[in-house]
Amino acid sequence: METKSAVTILAALAQDTRLAIYRLLVQQGSEGLAVGQIGERLAVANATLSFHLKELSHAGLILARQEGRFIYYSANYEQMNALLGFLTENCCRGEACAPASNVSPCDGAC
């Protein structure tokens, strides 16, 4: 991952509502949620939700799929893991880092 991509991703997450949306979608796994469900769970108006989903999508953090009349969004775990790798690639002076006990890697099946 390049620095410019990391900055775009981090900027997308640097807003309360977008961070809440992203965390909700990460928790839902690969199935994701329909737009209406996201709005209901987070009490976000449709127009506002649409704006924030667009920003997260532009950063590559979420993926959309259409099923019938509904659009479902899910976290893009590949992008999330790439960002985590970028942020930690030079940690611990180049030596293997001991993983934090409360953090587990996510392969999209969380």
UniProtKB/TrEMBL annotation:
SMART domains named in the record: HTH_ARSR (SM00418)
Keywords associated with the record: DNA-binding, Transcription, Transcription regulation
Coiled-coil intervals, chain numbering: none
SUPFAM superfamilies according to UniProt: Winged helix' DNA-binding domain (SSF46785)
InterPro entries from the UniProt entry: ArsR-like_HTH, HTH_ArsR_DNA-bd_dom, Metal_resp_trans_reg, WH-like_DNA-bd_sf, WH_DNA-bd_sf
Domain HTH arsR-type positions: 1-95
CDD domains, sorted: HTH_ARSR (cd00090)
Family matches, as PANTHER family: ARSENICAL RESISTANCE OPERON REPRESSOR ARSR-RELATED
Protein name in the entry: ArsR family transcriptional regulator
